[in-house]
Amino acid sequence: MPSSSHRPARAPHVARKRFGQHFLHDPGVIRKIVEAIAPSADDAIVEIGPGEGALTRPLLERVKRLEVIEIDRDLAAALPGERIRVHVADALEFDFGVFPAGVRIVGNLPYNISTPLLFHLARYAGRVRDLHFMLQLEVVERMVARPSTPEYGRLSVMLQTRFAMQKLFRVAPGAFRPPPKVDSAVVRMVPLGAPLGCDEKVFERVVREAFSARRKTLRNALSLEPADYTQLGIDPKLRPENLSPLDYVRIARRVGAR
Fold first, then answer.
1. Please, which residues bridge with residue 47 across strands?
2. Which is nearest to 120 in space by CA: 204, 23, 18, 24?
3. Three-class SS string for the chain?
4. Cα 188 to Cα 36: distance, rounded to the nearest angstrom
5. Angle at the Cα of 40 from the Cα atoms of 51 and 90, rounded to 5 degrees
6. Is the pTM of this model over 0.90?
7. What pLDDT score does 18 carry?
8. pLDDT at 246
9. CA spacing 20 to 30 A to 179: which of 50, 91, 207, 232?
10. What is the mean pLDDT of each run of 10 residues along the chain (258 residues)?
11. Do the beta carbons of residue 208 and residue 153 sit within 8 Å?
């Protein structure tokens, strides 16, 4: 019987376009991500989209146990079995509330679903310790954008009301197989800890309504009365991108109080 050292290597997984797969392979980038996460042995860590396990394996060297969410059944079956629990599921539909409070979430997120996945994860801000993600650079710049800048929008507001965010470093396309057509970046998200301060559904509706008409003035974009603007101290001639995340919380609080 041949020894394991002479077994043929597993053929590389063919990236599936429908899952937005780009497999991280650069050892230097992987090392920087793990150093940024700085996992401790007892940390409860969930990895989204482990793929071929490039980040999974070094994480397992640091922690006692790891949970992963992988939609591709072939990739899920190939992940290391010890000390790892694999959830074959779509992260967009996954209930992250099943994990213990203080969970840390990491991953190289599929770029084709990154924005809706971030909106989904934002709902669990009160249960997580932090999140570290590889994302398309453009998305990270929108996440951390300041008001009155071109990148500032719905994603900025929805996340900045729940998380303190920091763009950690940029990653070139060559770090992946196959290489994406855009640069990427790693971002750290730490929950602010304070409650949102208004009804979440009302807040989401107000922000969505505002930025679906971002070139209009607030007077034409939002369903508010003149007295609302007076009470809030907000100029109705401003555009949606001119308001801070806190302004949107104040608006949602007033709408919800009606």
1. 68, 106
2. 204
3. CCCHHHCCCCCCCCCCHHHCCCEECCHHHHHHHHHHHCCCCCCCEEEECCCCCCCHHHHHCCCCCEEEEECCHHHHHHCCCCCEEEEECCHHHCCHHHCCCCEEEEEECCCCCHHHHHHHHHCCHHHEEEEEEEEEHHHHHHHCCCCCCCCCCHHHHHHHCCEEEEEEEEECHHHEECCCCCCEEEEEEEECCCCCCCCHHHHHHHHHHHHCCCCCCHHHHCCCCHHHHHHHCCCCCCCHHHCCHHHHHHHHHHHHHC
4. 8
5. 30
6. no
7. 41
8. 96
9. 91
10. 36 45 86 97 96 92 95 86 91 96 94 92 94 96 97 97 97 91 96 90 95 91 93 96 97 90
11. no
Structure tokens of 122?
Answer: 């934002």
First vs last C-alpha separation in the chain: 76
Task: State the sign of the Cα–Cα–Cα–Cα dihedral 106, 107, 111, 117.
Answer: negative
Task: Return the closest-CA partner of residue 134 out of 236, 20, 247, 254.
Answer: 20
- pLDDT score recorded for residue 9: 39
Copy the structure tokens of residue 243. 């308001």
Distance CA 129, CA 149 (A): 29
- The first and second tokens of residue 101, run together, are 């409070």
The pairs formed by 140-145 with CB atoms below 8 angstroms and a separation of 24 or more are 140/167, 140/185, 140/186, 140/187, 141/167, 141/185, 143/118, 143/167, 143/187, 143/189, 144/187
Spell out the residues 6+ positions from residue 26 whose beta carbon is closer than 8 angstroms to its own. Answer: 171, 174, 175, 176
Tokens of 13: 């997984």
pLDDT at 215: 86
Cα→Cα distances 74→15, 16, 66, Å: 11, 11, 19
